[in-house]
User: What shape does this take?
Amino acid sequence: MHKQSSMKEALEGVEKEALEAIKMISDLAGAKALRTRYLGRKGVVTALLREVSGLPAEERPGAGRLANKVKQTLEQAFDEALKELEQSIAESQEEALDVTLPGRPLAQGHVHPITQIAQAICEIFQRLGFDIVEGPDVELDYYNFEALNIPRDHPARDMQDTFYISDNVVLRTHTSPIQVRVMESQPPPVCIIAPGKAYRVDSDISHTPMFHQVEGLMVQEDISFGDLKGILTTFVHQIFDEETSLRFRPSFFPFTEPSAEVDILCVICRGKGCRVCSHTGWLEVLGAGMVHPAVFEMVGYDTDRYTGFAFGMGIERIAMLKYGIEDIRKFYENDIRFLEQF
Amino acid sequence: MKVSLSWLKDYVTVDVDVVELAEALTMRGLEVSALLDRYAYLDRVLVGSVTHVAPHPHADTLSICQVDAGTGIKPVVCGATNIKEGARVPIALPGAKLLSGDTIEAGDIRGQPSEGMLCSEAELALGTDSSGVLLLPSTAEPGCGIASALGLSDTLIEFDLTPNRSDCLSVIGIAREVAAILKTPVKYPGVKLPQGERPIEELTSVTIEASDHCPRYAARVVTGVQIGPSPFWLQDRLHSVGLRAINNVVDVTNFVLMEMGQPLHAFDFDRLAEHRIVVKTARDGQIFTTLDGTERPLSADMLMICDGRGPVALAGIMGGLESEIEDHTTAVLIESAYFNPITTRRTAKRLGLNTESSFRFERGVDPVGVKRALDRAAQLMVELAGGQLAEGVIDAYPRPFEQRVIELSVKRTNRHLGTQLKRDEVGTYLQSIEVHTEPLDEDRLKVVPPSFRVDISRPEDLMEEVARLRGYDQLPTTHPVSHAVAKKPDKKLRVRERLRELLAGCGFSEIVTYSFIDKDACDQLLLDGDDRRRQMVWIHNPLTEDQEVMRTSLLPGLLATMHRNSTQRSENLRIFELGKVFLRTGPDQLPEEVEMISGLWTGARYGDTWHFKETKVDFYDMKGVVEAVLAGLNITGARFAPLTADGVPYMRLGHAAQVRAGNETLGAVGALSRQVLRNFGLKRAAYCFDLNFDRLVAHVSDEKHAKALSRFPATTRDMALIVDIGLEAHRILDFIAKMGQELMRDVEIFDVYKGPPIPEGKKSMALRFTYQSFERNITDSEVNSVHETVTHNVLKQFNAQLPADSGG
Assistant: This one.
């Protein structure tokens, strides 16, 4: 009994030791030497097999089976290890890829910068609770001018050089007519933002005959000029950043009273003065004001009860500042090399 | 509007820096667009020291001066006789641009080089003496700028005024604002009229026949004047704001115009027929020659100033050639009037004639200030041109100015502005700009704005004044109370955004082109005579000829963009535009606006890279894009059908398909016809899609339901068919789908082949079927039997064969 169990222990010990050693194999010569050490003619396992014949007869079959099993297990393990080793040697000898060659191109298109900025502007106002509405590009003179307190033969018409389709039909010169259409169609409260194209007879480095605007309108009880300042400050801080301060200046629009021109601290020079801001440190980006009572009267809103503010801005202007574009016409040349930058 | 600081200081004490003043004016709504050095035109005029004077060898009246201008000695040929060696004189160097408009150049005068000009004070607009070169004090340093040598310094303040502030179109108008800012009084010029001679009524009369157009017309007469140049101070004032001095009488009218903002006109009294004035509208078709020598056609709604015979001036716009002040004029009738802004504007617009005068009348002059300006001009004319003032004034005033009285609630003012101002604070602000206020009760003020503030008529106008004077930056910044009712974003907006993402994902870049295009675009697209897209909206006043009509298709914009890019050698292009087209409905009516989505692909599918040889885009690439977009928008059941000749004439027959969903046509996809490409100056092939976005949106489904997935293995079977070459794949697929085999999961076409060994007129088509059950494992024999049935049915339906070698 004692002898048999020590034989079994010896075999199991050798098996465990050899399997551990096989795991550590790293080169062919080492592997062969290891194999000879265990399975060679003078190997450890071969020696143990020989010892089996010296055991008592009743123990021999059990020990013999175990010894052969260990031998087979180790032979298989050596074979697999060698095969793996040879394979990895073969792989390592294959030619390496030039990983610096360009990858297989997947074409990626680009959304127009004007669209991207318009979306960014609208998103900010949507978070503030404004709904997006739209209106026609070809508009009645009434909505574009008269309902906005700009009668015929008023000098304020000079502020917007208009494309005429007929006496009563124009290409809208701003997105403000949408205000009127919305107010005509619903009672207060109103809280809308209206993006769209606008048209003016103008063409130079800072004007194109077609351009984009976003108009905003908020009407409810007790809206004040202070609220307008608050909303626009939030907007400017989000579209640019918190360091971009605002300056409100008195101005004139026939459909707001008081009216304001809103300047932001030059985003290029941060107020030090540069070419972009004409060395003033400020950039004009928004027009705004409290809705003129004449406009409310035109749509039948109660001017005693409701007040409101409106504002408008040019999308190109914001895009030019954000992307460092100096010539507005670039947006409409649609040179693919330009578009691919956004 | 420009004002010089020195002139401004005649009416208000300015004790702050001009930059600071400009900032304050801007922040109070009078935007200062520029601060300019008034003497910038003297930048290249320096102090010169005359080192030598010699006679000109070829001209008796000229001499050659050697002048040290600080940077070396320069020869200057000069005709003046008051130059001596050692004199300090102004030398204008080449490049100097004088106020007269002359630019000095280096040159050769009668064979002698001359590198500048020695100037008189008149030539430098620094005085009236033109008899000789201006002699400077001997202490003046050669090379020093003439302006600094003479201690000349003045700033021109340039304003970008809004159209409501007509009261600021004068130096006094600006001075009033400055005074309010600096809290100091305005120093109005006093008017002292000399004793008159003959009563004016004996000399002339004014009849207003159109009082709607002319509510007030005042006149004075000065006789015995002597026309001549104005004194320097007057010329200098006019020069400072960019006006030219003409003669003493005309200069006075211009001076008062700039000073007070009231346009005046001086008539040669003796050239007024019957010595009288009649204000009336013109006759249609009448011709009138304005003093710029232009013949102007008149119409019945234009207001004219007439004498006893006919028109002598376009009221408020420009005088006539016939009654202009001339050198021998001896008697002057001065006109000061209030003309209706609308009348003036209409006439000025119609005639395309914009003058300092019409600009002010259009915006509204001070109706009360009419007589004060007249008196001021009369006084100056007598002083400067001599002569006698006729006694009295004619002041035809059929429509007297009505004083506006406004009740202002301080509570509402505070509500509007978000402020907490007290009643008396509001009053004080308003009084600082000559608005009269008087408390009515605890809350309200009775307010009377001054006559020159024609823009103030409602309480809100006064609120703006209060806000402006306090400073917008001093108003609180608050946040409105939110009602927090968020509507679901409009479906259209969502689809637009998704569509752009999908197309960008397919490699397409968005373009934005002008909504107006060339009127020939319809012809270029080969549209039929009765095509709806020929109903174009025309722009009455287009900017250029190729922007004359509103687009009815996005394709011209895409093709023009392809053209522009090809000139930049960008030949591989994938672009799209999402935008409106405009279809005319009727005269004077809004057009139908339809939103379209169109794309164009030209050049390579894959560019030439180390991975691929360049492959050209083809129909199936573009169709694939449309399919991907439709799938991405969750539009199911869209169908492609061969294009017929009608409807899409700009696409190539046989290489284009109609895209349909339900019973609607969404648009088309395919190759652009070669003729159309040629019409747009393009040589390379291009594929496009052109879909109606509005219709597309209607088919977008927001609903998505997850389908169960089978746990059991799927088996495939292939089927090769030889069919007629014209058989459309969708007919086979539709037929198979209609068989309703419950084990069939999917069918796809994986090969199409034409040519030997397939007989002529036939093609082979290989289909792969996927079979699978949701409930169990299916056996090979089960699949075989189903597949055989399907094969049998397909063969029968389409009269097809199996390839010979498959033993079919």
